[in-house]
């Protein structure tokens, strides 16, 4: 018998504990057949799962649209807010040190 993947993080390493299924990677617990809400997982450039309130670091120089300024590598963005419904790819809303509020793409940041 194969167990279903975790509905929260899609891990294949789920296991049974009584009537519960448990994911060892994200600690999500659910009952088989239980309807769970669709959860969108946003990961950084290294594959780490991001959550609201995390601090991230920019891994590539980023040009600011409509300006001649550049966000340099290593710039920190504290207390991020995830935007799972982003259609333009900018799935992080944050305040960047020295620049103010802006949206970033998760593929250009890493979790601190």
UniProtKB/TrEMBL annotation:
InterPro entries: YjdM, YjdM_C, YjdM_N
Protein YjdM N-terminal domain residues: 2-30
SUPFAM superfamilies, A to Z: Prokaryotic SH3-related domain, Zinc beta-ribbon
Pfam families: YjdM, Zn_Ribbon_YjdM
Domain Protein YjdM C-terminal: 42-112
Family: Belongs to the YjdM family.
Name of the protein this chain belongs to: Alkylphosphonate utilization protein
């Amino acid at each position: 018998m194969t167990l279903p993947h975790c509905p929260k993080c899609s891990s294949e390493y789920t296991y049974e504990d009584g009537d519960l299924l448990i994911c060892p990677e994200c600690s999500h617990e659910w009952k088989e057949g239980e309807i769970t809400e669709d959860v969108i997982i946003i990961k950084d450039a290294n594959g780490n799962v991001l959550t609201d309130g995390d601090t991230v670091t920019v891994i590539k120089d980023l040009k600011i649209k409509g300006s001649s300024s550049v966000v340099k590598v290593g710039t920190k963005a504290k207390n991020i807010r995830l935007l799972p419904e982003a259609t333009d790819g900018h799935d992080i809303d944050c305040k960047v040190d020295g620049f103010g509020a802006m949206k970033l793409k998760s593929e250009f940041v890493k979790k601190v």
